[in-house]
Amino acid sequence: MTQPTLIIIDMQRGMLEPAAGDRNNPDAPARIGELLKEWRVAGAPVVHVRHISRSTGSLFAPGQPSAEFQPALLPLPNEHVVEKNVPDAFINSGLERWLHVRDIQSLVIVGVSTNNSVEATARTAGNLGFSTYVVADGCFTFAKSDYNGVLRSADDVHAMALANLHEEYAQVINSREAHDLLMKH
Length: 185
Hints:
It is a single chain. The protein is an alpha/beta fold and about 180 residues long. The chain has a single domain, classed as Isochorismatase-like (Rossmann fold, 3-Layer(aba) Sandwich), CATH 3.40.50. Helix content is about 30%, strand content about 20%. The chain has helices at about 30-40, 95-100, 115-125, 155-165, 175-185; strands spanning about 5-10, 45-50, 80-85, 105-110, 130-140, 145, 150, 170-175. The protein has a 6-stranded parallel β-sheet, sandwiched between helices. Strands 6-7 form a two-stranded antiparallel ribbon. This is Nicotinamidase-related amidase.
């Protein structure tokens, strides 16, 4: 059985800028860094996903410094990089094929935003039949108004996104459980 693949979503410089908004889980980048180190030590597969916007005015437009990976999480030459321009990392990216060719069946997802790219990617992964795990303390999101115009805190948005995923599309776990999952293989 192959080791689970760590998928790091949109950990780009722009996600840490104040313009991104009020966020939760300030320790998430550190948890992601710890998991990345563990995956590298184990020789397990790692996929780095970055959003490249179609909008020229975006923080994530091609060539913008804010679209680059955060320095602490730079991909190594042997790690796969996926560029996407919609929230779901599986759409028009070749990610599904890359995973299938390597007989990868289990995914551990971390990154940002919990309610956007993380949730979209995890839903598709679950629908495609991958054993999918989302690391709650390895993800973060931003405050957002709901459909009724009520401002929801980043913690509330995060919790609802995780609730949307848990036991339907993925198992929501913490970073310690992700470590344990890696060590089982």
